[in-house]
Design goal:
The chain is α/β, with parallel strands linked by helices. The chain has 3 helices and 11 strands.
Amino acid sequence: MIEVIFVKDGQLVRSIEVPGGQRADMVFLIMPGVSCDVKLDVRLAGEGAEANIYGAYVCGGDEKVSIAVDMHHDLPHCNSRQLFKGIAGGSSRVDFYGKIIVAQDAQKTEAYQENHNILLSDGAKVDTKPQLEIYADDVKCSHGATIGRLSEEEQFYMRSRGITLEDAKVLQMISFIAPVLENIPETDRESVAIQFEDAIRNII
């Protein structure tokens, strides 16, 4: 069962231990106007454990959002994936820190971490620091991070087909965070997508 968490103002601290053969799936959602400090400590504590952590954030004002994830692989044959995608506008500040720690005995680990961001204004700032700390040699691990702008070429293409500039930007941003929202259970996915679309329109 996927746990969907709308993060509120303040601090959110979670320690998650996943036993062998079990799986944890979580989606963290941060809407405009929310300033928060999210600290996640995930430990894959038995063989065959799996954790998938997703997050989407949209900041359009002076929000301060900090996200820190420590993913511990302690034993063999465990898998993890982290995908966080965000949009920062106004004078907002976003800090992302992620670390995958693979113990010496955690052979056959597969662990992936991604953080991708779009800046909407010159006043917004994103600092992203994905890290790997690996002590085993038979593993598949990777991390990546990007900070970019909306594509003007895509906007031009859509406008040439009768789409307004505002709608073109909204479509780009919804498409950008869609890989996170796709992990929300189908019963709630449409309503969450509508909330994010309304939020995005309000910060353009």
